[in-house]
Amino acid sequence: MAKYRQIREDLRALIESGEYGPRALLPSLTDLTARYRVARNTATQALKELEQEGLIQSEGGRGWIVRPRPRPRRHGIDRYSRSTWAAGKAILIAETASQGMVARQQIRELAEVEAPEVVAVRLGIPVGTTVWVRRRTTFIEDRAHQLADSYYPLDLVEGTAIRQVDTGPGGGFARLEESGERLDEINEELAARMPTSREAIDLSLPPGTPVVELIRTTYDISGRAVEVMWSIIAGDMSSFSYRFKIPD
């Protein structure tokens, strides 16, 4: 076995066994070159390959550390229970808290924009129609997890906290119901792909890490689409669970 592969496999085994936990400092290049009697470039190659796998990352001033990888399970049906958001709980925060993790979000933009085709088709409106968008970045355990952009028809958000930084207890779903919309159905579409360069930067993705593109459309009891959320989720932080009755 080539020396760089031996270094790579030894370090991977130590990480996967838990001997080196999240954010643990790995042996320095000097230590690795001495321990394995190899050139500095050989040890660097091993570390770079582990970085490409998303297992480690370089942290300025410290060296190489084990990359923290919180992976909350997204319960695709149960997470939307009315009992959660109607009680004033934010869906993502409640779901991650139940798994022992801390989530938060940061607003990137609140604005009136022209609906792109992906959104317009699902809202049933002409492309370019003015809609309201809330762009957020969500973090789990202080790591960027998702770029979530929620689009709403303008008539549904006028005078509501959906136009504010803080939507209030229960989030957008609760505000829509307060305004008279009875939410009834959700459709989710998922697709895996490689990120754009901008997405990779915004989510701090290591090289080679895919993303999951999730488009959620929410409908009221009349069948009208009242919200489209277009999300880009870090692939190494994605786990989806669906349990449902088998249709006749």
UniProtKB/TrEMBL annotation:
Transcription regulation listed as a keyword: yes
Give one Pfam hit by family name.
UTRA
Which Gene3D superfamilies does UniProt cross-reference here?
Chorismate lyase-like, Winged helix-like DNA-binding domain superfamily/Winged helix DNA-binding domain
Domain HTH gntR-type as annotated: residue spans: 1-69
Q: Name one GO biological process term.
A: negative regulation of DNA-templated transcription
What is the top-level taxon of the source organism?
A: Bacteria
Q: What InterPro entries would the database entry show?
A: Bact_HTH_transcr_reg, Chorismate_lyase_/UTRA_dom_sf, Tscrpt_reg_HTH_GntR, UTRA, WH-like_DNA-bd_sf, WH_DNA-bd_sf
Q: Which SMART domains match?
A: HTH_GNTR, UTRA
User: GO MF annotations for this entry?
Assistant: DNA binding; DNA-binding transcription factor activity
Q: Which UniProt keywords apply?
A: DNA-binding, Transcription, Transcription regulation
Checking PANTHER family in the record gives: GNTR-FAMILY TRANSCRIPTIONAL REGULATOR, MANNOSYL-D-GLYCERATE TRANSPORT/METABOLISM SYSTEM REPRESSOR MNGR-RELATED
The protein depicted here goes by the name UTRA domain-containing protein
Question: What is the native source organism of this protein?
Answer: Herbidospora solisilvae
